[in-house]
Amino acid sequence: MQATGSSQQPLLSVEGLRVEFGIDRSVLRAVDGVSFSVNRGATLGIVGESGCGKSVTSLAIMRLVATPPGRYAGGTIRFDGQDLLSLPESQMRRLRGGRIGMIFQEPMTSLNPVYTCGDQIVESLKVHGDLSPKAARDRAVELLDLVRLPSPSKRVDDYPHQLSGGQRQRVMIALALANDPDLLIADEPTTALDVTIQAQILELMKELQDRTGTAILLITHDLGVVAETCDEVVVMYAGTVVEQAPTGALFGDPQHPYTVGLMAAVPRIDVDADRLATIEGSVPPPWQVMPGCRFASRCPLADDRCRNQPPPLREIAPQHRVACWHAPIEGGTA
Amino acid sequence: MTTPSPTLLAVEGLTKHFPVRRGLLRRTVGQVQAVTDVSFEVGAGETLAIVGESGCGKSTTGRTLLRLLEPTAGAVRLEGTDLLGLSAGQLREMRRKMQIIFQDPYGSLNPRMTVREVLAEPLLLHGVATQATLRAKIAEVLELCGLSAFHAERYPHEFSGGQRQRVGIARALATRPRLIVCDEPVSALDVAIQAQILNLLRRLQDEFGLSYLFISHDLGVVQFICDDIAVMYLGEIVEYADRPTLFSHPRHPYTAVLLEAAPSLARRKSRGYRRQGIVKGDPPSPMNLPAGCAFASRCPQAQDRCRAEKPLLHDTGAGKVACHFPL
Q1: Is residue A333 very low, low, confident or very high in pLDDT (cuts 50, 70, 90)?
Q2: Do B171 and B184 share a structural domain?
Q3: Nearest CA to CA, how far is A216 from chain B (Å)?
Q4: Distance (Å, rounded) from C-alpha B12 to C-alpha B37?
Q5: DSSP letter at B306?
Q6: ipTM tops 0.85
Q7: Of B176, B193, B208, which closes a domain?
């Protein structure tokens, strides 16, 4: 990990986070005891399949989970020393779009269609700063230029529908970066985009990070995107963290059978294969009660202990944590 | 092209232009040139992949050759029969031999029909099953696709995404077609489920000698499933080659850009990887195509000739490429 703040405390630290949803009379635990931290200037990836709780985790950090039906059932989220879960809503609003920027997957629905791109950036600048209308507009043009939107002084007056998908995502990034955030939360920022545009956006995020020192929390299902952009990775499965490691260690020496299976299932352009390795079965529904490891029903290594006792997340190498009774596995099973 | 097996599908000069109508009188003010002069062949038991980004015309190509959309020009021959000359009745006969699997298993199954009803329709319509053999036929095709006979009584919403795509495949497979157009069949699925579905498609191909026209934007998926690849950009094929040739030695700059842009587990930030050759900008509008090469505005090695003169698809010995200065 390339921590710029060296021995300082992490910028964001999430400890034992639990988020529940009350559906009818049952309780559905979408995030169940998740812990990780993000250092200043670093990029942490959270990777997992649909329903693993990665997006709910990111929404919880911004305290955007709708309550009810959602409920923060436990744990702490510390951002620069402040506990976000106990912060009054007014202060939370100052953080959102201020010191914490956000980018969502769908740039069409996350921009307001009835305001121009410029208006939306100006609004954010006015809420968080004290700029004159003229200065705010100049800053909006500057930001659009920063994210390489062509002819920004003209585009600032365009409505979102006048832009392409990639251009809209650039506007979203400009908006997220408007107030020089310390942390940028990007939830599947390139999933809706074509690969050549995805490459542009990922490169842009990296460049802006080099320039501004913003820490990035990148939520994605794409292991390739993680490999290319993250310093550290958290792998989630069914609401829990199953493995956490620096990117090199995770891809070079995956230790959780789920991580191993996920990587083997990716069809690769550099490998010829007759058959793809698969993970049998599917993710258990979140209402299913499992006394042991949640992956046990699909795991080739599962035994009685796995089915009955949940494995704790423990460190098996420096900064490499795995929640598996069988870790460390010899040489991996990939 | 290396096609040792007999040609099943031959497409020649396929073109589909959509008129753009504006104003009170809905006058035609322009054309969206979705697909222009596309030609390719698919051998029996083989897979041709069409790759490209949104709006390149790959889905329109698939739908037009099945005559789900009427082509503007061109010829499509399946087992020697010209599909474009067929009457509606004859075409229905032919549909037994050519089926399609869609991307979105949520949107492509009727929510009010059970799986039995979804599968019974093509089976009875094409005379593959009679009322007497229907139950057995449905069970058989479900089991081929990794489902069970009891799934027949369920509605689409009772399935997971992967299972729903299996139902979509069962529906396509029910009439025992020769050709299946697979339009992004795994892009909506999680990677572990995607691997299951891709393995299933490969197994069915081996078992029944199916030919696939596999439409995808994901080069990893294409690498796994196909024999030949056609790369499309703005409605035209810009490169056409067999899989090993295209992946090891792309000739069109756009193909090279696509390969470079595909995220890969092997390229890691921790190893100091930094992406090279990112193209700038977006593709031009298909309503207003440039005079020269359509890729010239984004191409890293475009020259004056590229902007003035349109490159034609020509033979390179190992494939075909439409570029004045192939790599």
Answers
A1: very low
A2: no
A3: 14
A4: 7
A5: H
A6: no
A7: B176
Same domain, B129 and B225: no
B204 and B75, same domain (yes or no)? yes
pTM of the predicted model over 0.80: yes
* CA–CA separation, A282 and A259 (whole Å): 15
Gap between the terminal Cα atoms of chain B:
19
- List the single residue in B190, B195, B269 with the smallest CB-CB distance to A231: B269
Contact by Cβ (8 Å): B24, B221: no
pLDDT, position A232: 95
The pLDDT, as a whole number, for residue B227 is 94
CATH code of the domain containing B20: 3.40.50.300
- For B271-290, the pLDDT digits (tens) are 666 666 677 777 887 777 88
B42 and B151 within one domain: no
Name the minimum distance, in Å, from the CA of A208 to any CA of chain B. Answer: 14
Contact A79, A251 (CB under 8 A): no
Any idea which residue has 């002084």 for tokens? A153
d(CA B49, CA B219): 10
On whether both B275 and B144 belong to a single domain, the answer is no
Whether B166 and B48 share a structural domain: no
Domain that holds residue B257: 7-97+177-321
Query: Which tokens hold the place of A143?
Result: 């930001």
Sheet of B81-82: strands edge to edge?
A: B27-43, B7-22, B73-78, B81-82
Q: How many domains does chain B have?
A: 2
Interface test with A, best of B166, B221, B265 (most A CBs within 10 A): B265
Q: Are B66 and B14 in contact (CB under 8 A)?
A: no
In eight-state DSSP terms, residue A96 is B
Segments in chain B forming alpha helices (H):
58-65, 88-95, 115-125, 134-144, 161-173, 191-208, 219-225, 243-248, 253-261, 304-308
Residue in B163, B238, B269, B276 to test binding to A, most A beta-carbons within 10 Å? B269
- CB of B189 within 8 A of CB of B165? yes
- In sequence order, what are the residues at sequence separation of 6 or more whose Cβ sits closer than 8 angstroms to the Cβ of residue A118? A137, A140, A141, A144, A156, A157
DSSP B232-275: EETTEEEEEEEHHHHHHS--SHHHHHHHHHS--TT--GGGT---
Distance between CA B187 and CA B148 in Å, rounded?
Answer: 24
Q: Which two tokens stand for residue A321?
A: 């944590």
Give the single-character DSSP code of B153. G
Same domain for B148 and B287, yes or no, is: no
Shortest distance between the Cα of A93 and any Cα of chain B, in A, equals 34
Residues B157 and B196 in one domain: no
